[in-house]
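pinging the channel bc i need a second pair of eyes. not urgent but kinda urgent?? the chain im working w is below, pasted from the shared doc
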Amino acid sequence: MPASFDLADVRSRFPALQVDPEAIHADAPGGTQMVDVSLDAMRDAAIRLNANQHAPFRASAQVDALNDRARQTFGAFLGSEPEGIVFGANMTTLAFHLSHALDELLATGGDIVCTRLDHDANVSPWLGLAERTGSTVRFVDITADGRIDVDSIEQVVTERTKLITFPLASNAFGTIVDPAPFVEAARRVGALTIMDAVHGAPHLTIDRRALGVDVVFCSPYKFFGPHHGVMAADPALLARLSPDKVRPSPDTGAERWQTGTASFEHIAASTAAVDYMVDDIGMDAIATHERDLAERFLAGLAQRPAWTLHGPADVDGRTPTFAITHETLDPAKVASGLGDRGIRVYAGHYYAIEPMRATGLLDNGGAVRIGFVHYHGADDVDRVLAALDELG
């Protein structure tokens, strides 16, 4: 880990930032830029490791070693056993895959608990599971400032509850969620827990076992790697479920959950992205720098009364992701205006339908989402704030 956080050095590690140095990639919650070692690992794997697994020649043996190391790396990153690490196309695909394997758990019906703060990738798979099994989906509510209504957990979790899903952090509002109330409620009734850590992984340290969560999802393209998905699950849970698979594939272990040949290039690149975050920069250094960015943006936005923040107004309990609206301007128009000024942002619901509906934003164009990560600096924050002034 470096002795100190050097923003110039960090930015030099991202080739995309050199393509247009004046651009501000404030679309980070929708996907971050790839770090150099991740790009290098992808290219190297495509050249040297273009083989399938478990064959008696060198390239295949190297692929086997890559998979082993990747599972060790993600096991450490997510606080989970390596044998419970499953790779896939993306979090959404993995969640739907798991949902079908959970049909047997809810074969006699029951309740599934989701939250009004979730991205739809952590809602739709469980709605489908409920429809197939005759189960009921119940939702934990959120407060007006986009936080989990903890009292609502107690109201919706009952003896009928068999599955509880929740986000580690909101991709819409940046809200950080405490897993403890969900885990405690699940333990009382014997329910499984699934945590969507896609938005949280670039910002927060995760330990599945310490949290007591059964399954964690994340997506490396949200933390400086490729478009890929990862599931970290309790191996005992995976062993007792029956995923869709072809007959010749393994009947035990994480590989039986991976349909077809895995993308070894993406596995290599994803592993390199974790190495960069953990070893080259350090999660504590990332958190400290991002807190400074969040404080700067929140302080600046508070001085601009025409703009409204949706989500926690204090830096504690949030990531540097901000949903904002203007008193008169349409969110899409704001995003377009920022784009004209070289600032990349999204407007709308960003697939977070439940939180947008719960806060009354869904039918009004959603919100403008501005997201920072550790390769941004104070100048980026100031430029965004200045651009908001120009727009309204």
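so The mean pLDDT is 97. and The chain has two domains: 7-25+282-391, 39-278. — does that match what u expected or am i reading it wrong
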